Amino acid sequence: MPKEVEKWSADVTEHSDALELEAHVFEKDDPKEIAASLKRSADKSDKRKTEPFRSAMSMLTFYINRAGKNLSASRRKVLEEAKDELRRVYGRAAKD
Is the pTM of this model over 0.90? Predict the structure, then answer.
């Protein structure tokens, strides 16, 4: 498979048209740092097509879904906690 096609999801994460993400944001160990970084990116973006919260949450969900089985349980837990933190910083109700 050609290299350009092989990692299309990584390319989307690194070069999103909607958000300019900070480098290695999804590798951070603190869910609050991940949420804060995504919030900064979404709030300052003028390219997004929807509200900042939805753009930030979509990018985080996209990353989790694309990583799939390659995520360790501890990594998935941090990223899921980042979703809850993102809801908190945007004043959204927590999901049950």
Answer: no
